[in-house]
């Protein structure tokens, strides 16, 4: 069995950003495999990533592995063929671009009910990869990039380990750190759920609702919207930040170094947190003084409890708020939720609903 340090599963824009930024920043040798089913795209990503490493004089080396993750036993075969220490699962059957799309009944449902309408789609491939890692019995670190604030809790409920995700809270922590409103060198700590991102896609005068919690050098900011009015995100996914945000962590994981930063869904928790990576590869919460883990988790969990998708301690998934009402109009059985073990069957049902609604104009 061949072996690599990092396996990036996926060939879309998010996976490309990860690979290209590894290529531009890896100061220590790191072997990366990019996996996906589009061979022409794989060839380009390998070519471009190796060219970037040469261009910047860095020590990353990229190869590829062709795989269709929807095929039977594909996850097991991919792991056996590549032998990764770290798996970055960035493949999904639902593009994140849905947040910037409109014009049909499906995009309208997502806009009104929230991105958790896509959580089951985001979970499918990541769950299969996580299950394959568990069955392999090998010590492989899983980083799930598909809607980690919510999906990582689903993966844990299915009995599998997941280290964390990328983006979301790390988008906000890094834009706040780069803001003119932050003193140079100040320690920035952010508690944020993915739902907090929407306000920063609007103009400053239009922002409102619950803001992320932000601490600068240990002092919590009273009015986050006013303090960081200079920050502006794009309507579409900000891959230039989100895809890049996990790269320093991945390189630290690969080389066994300590790292401090922010991630969504650490160890299956809801939402995003400040964390530290220990030399033995363990991610621990690194909360501001005076903020307990129970308080931080409850704050993040409250978003999906109000509107979204929640996972009970018994492993039952339920839809809440506007999203629950909208889905219930089309699929009444989902009003009662479903057992996490039924994920595949529910995914098929939701895919049929998505296909039908995409063929209907928005009302």
Task: Give me the secondary-structure topology.
Blueprint: E1 4-9, H1 13-25, E2 30-36, H2 39-56, E3 60-66, H3 74-82, E4 84-89, H4 105-113, H5 119-136, E5 141-144, H6 148-157, H7 169-177, E6 188-191, H8 198-201, E7 213-216, E8 219-220, H9 224-227, H10 239-245, H11 247-255, E9 259-264, E10 272-277, E11 283-285, H12 293-306, E12 308-311, E13 316-320, H13 321-330, E14 338-339, H14 343-358
Parallel strand pairs: 1-2, 1-4, 2-3, 4-5
Antiparallel strand pairs: 6-7, 7-8, 9-10, 10-11, 12-13, 13-14
InterPro entries: NAD(P)-bd_dom_sf
Protein name: Saccharopine dehydrogenase NADP binding domain-containing protein
Plain-language structure description:
The structure is a single chain. With 363 residues, this protein is of the alpha/beta class. Among the domains are: 4-167, Rossmann fold, CATH 3.40.50.720; 303-358, no CATH class. It is 41% helix and 18% strand. The protein has 14 helices and 14 strands. The strands form four sheets. The chain has a five-stranded parallel beta sheet, sandwiched between helices. The chain has a three-stranded antiparallel beta sheet with strand order 6-7-8, with helices on one face. Helix 1 packs across helix 10. It is globular.
